[in-house]
Amino acid sequence: MNARPFELPPTGSGMGVVSKVPFEKAAPVFLGNPQLRANLGNATRTIRGKRAAVIAELDDWEGLRSQAASIKDDVLDNMPSYLAAFTAAAEAAGATVHRAADAAEACALVASLAGDAREVIKVKSMATQEIGLNEALAAAGISAIETDLAELIVQLADDTPSHILVPAIHYNRSQIRDIFAARMPGFSSPSDEPAELAAAARSYLRQKFLTTDVAVCGANFAVAESGSLVVVESEGNGRMCLTLPKKLIAVVGIEKLLPRFSDLGVFLQLLPRSATGERMNPYTSIFTGVTPGDGPSSVHIVLLDNGRSNLLADPVGRPALRCIRCSACLNVCPVYERVGGHAYGSVYPGPIGAILSPQLTGQQAGANSSLPYASTLCGACYDVCPVKINIPEILVHLRQQGPHPVAESAVMRTLSWVMRDRRRWKAAVRLARTGAAPARFLTRRRGGTIRRLPFPMSAWTEHRDAPLPASQSFRDWWAKRHDS
Amino acid sequence: MRIALFVTCLNDVLFPRTGIAVVSLLERLGHEVVFPQEQTCCGQMHANSGYSAPARALESLTEQAFAGCEVIVSPSGSCVAHLRAHTSLPVYELSELLIDVLGVTDVGARFPHRVTYHPSCHGLRMLRLGDRPRRLLEAVDGLEFAELPDAEQCCGFGGTFALKNAAVSGAMLADKCAAACATDAAFLTAGDNSCLAHLSGGLARRPGAPKAVHYAEILAGTVKTGA
């Protein structure tokens, strides 16, 4: 079936955190899809408006942001001791805690923990997307069924998520109806009414909840002092997975730790307001180890590193690990809004993805080094980030690490050599002004701008006219004025 | 007051009229403007493109060029933001200088046209200029201020982004131009000629679109409106 309304660059399913196609090559493909742009524009505009309204209600949003950033920094500064505390507390409560250094190790652990199960149900989880768990389980003969409605839509379409929080943001409801009709067993409704689509998904998923013995989840927070995991979701499907199956396997990035239970008071205010524009999250499940007669009788927690420890060693880049995956930065990003998540080629798209993907898997991996340039550095992401990650600063930090194109590097170095001495600069300005004189004359009737330039400046004139050097520089005007 | 002008490399070559406007405006308000000759570029373009060593060299060159200056003004929000982050120079964006330092909102200008204003990202989110430029514009005699839809969204320039990701930059530009056209304004103004070069290049391809002009030129009264 081809449920996708457009052809994707070859990101493939289970794309993990490594971008395959350079952003500047992938972006134009998505940009050219008017349906996608309309879906994204409508969705991000709606969430932006809701977020802004609920944040304006709080007296001290800035104070909350600062508090959250410092709690997370405490965790990042003292990672080994919080990991030890969490492990001790969770195991004391009856859970088994495992450590996974990378994606392959984490996937192998989950597959072996799943035991004889041929089917597992899943709570929406970025950590499992990051490690490509579904594909790894499939290879081990286990099918993983996504139970978050939007993740289910994406899975049925054999597609990949395009947003951290709203994975099917690139689809509208009639496209979703078509996906269900082609792929969901028992679906026959001709209607694209949201209530009917949700009802169809509900009856499909209920059967899975009641018959599957193993569930896989992630966690939004892991409380070090109590060993508790916290799952924040909107549908209640996650809670079904957390309570009905006999065995629960949680894959949790090590940066999800919070020192104290009371820290949740800060983060449960910040997350829903930033993510969905809600004052309070609809379904918040907090669970600690195993409780006999209540919920799963076996709980395994896989603490995932996958590049995080390396990032901890970089003082400029490490604040990226404060991220609570709220997606506020995606929803305000003018670049994300126009191209969508698939252009970034990683499960982490948008501004946070542009810094997280290269930092977790390396700038050299795939096309990761193109991601730090997928931004105008407009700063809208930093403004909305609930944990105050200075994304523009980290983007520039990553750009500094290169690699830089040879021609660009030559131009930049020459330019800086010229600019480091005002006599050289003055001579260069005169040269530019004289060289541009014929063009100024020819374009004088249309405001003195150039309509077409040769490569590489054609990238400019393809979209806009180019200005020409003025007939007299400011410097020369000043000199003439002060001579006379 | 004796005020040193950091004209910026871009304005020096491409938009000297903006520097001239700042000089003429400040002199009209009774101040002395000086132009330290050693200045060239603040290093912002190199820094944002990931060339930190050349950027640092240009930052320190600028620091030396303006050593001893007590008040520095620049008609570019992004260059001011860069210098503020990387040097200790007392540098002000034009609207900060006028309102916060000189205490002037009505500069005595006349501009009987409908004008819309794009708050460039660096001015908006790094310098937190707020409504300063707007207050200056609204105090101009005859000026009719038109609200720009989605004003806070970036225009898509972003330095080398405009070349590296030309298609996305072009899409953002198209939306900004459409918003500007929807205001029915005769002029689109902003405080950064880098954004304005990009915007005017886009507007030039739309018949009847507003003309892009730096707000310093409106305040100075040096805009040629007949052309």
Characterize the structure shown.
The complex is a heterodimer of chains A (484) and B (227). In chain A, α3 packs across α12 (264-275). The longest helix of chain A has 23 residues, at 34-56. Chain A has helices spanning 23-31, 34-56, 61-77, 79-92, 103-113, 126-130, 133-139, 149-156, 173-183, 194-211, 237-243, 264-275, 308-312, 328-332, 334-339, 350-361, 380-384, 391-400, 406-419, 422-435, 437-442, 458-461, 474-483, and strands spanning 96-100, 119-122, 143-146, 214-217, 221-223, 228-233, 247-253, 257-258, 283-288, 298-304, 449-450, 466-467. Chain A is built from 23 helices and twelve strands. Helix content of chain A is 48%, strand content 11%. The radius of gyration of chain A is 26 Å and the shape is elongated. In chain A, β5 (221-223) and β6 form a beta hairpin. In chain A, the strands form three sheets. In chain A, strands 1-10-7-4-2-3 form a six-stranded parallel beta sheet, with helices on both faces. A four-stranded mixed beta sheet of chain A has the order 8-5-6-9. A two-stranded antiparallel ribbon of chain A has the order 11-12. By secondary structure, chain A is of the alpha/beta class. Chain B is of the alpha/beta class and 227 residues long. Chain B folds into two domains: 2-101, Rossmann fold (3-Layer(aba) Sandwich); 114-220. Helix content of chain B is 47%, strand content 12%. In chain B, α10 packs across α11 (193-203). Chain B starts with a strand and ends in a 7-residue tail after the last helix. Classes of the chains: A alpha/beta (484), B alpha/beta (227). At the A-B interface, α1, α15, α17, α18 and α19 of A face α1, α2, α3, α4 and α7 of B.
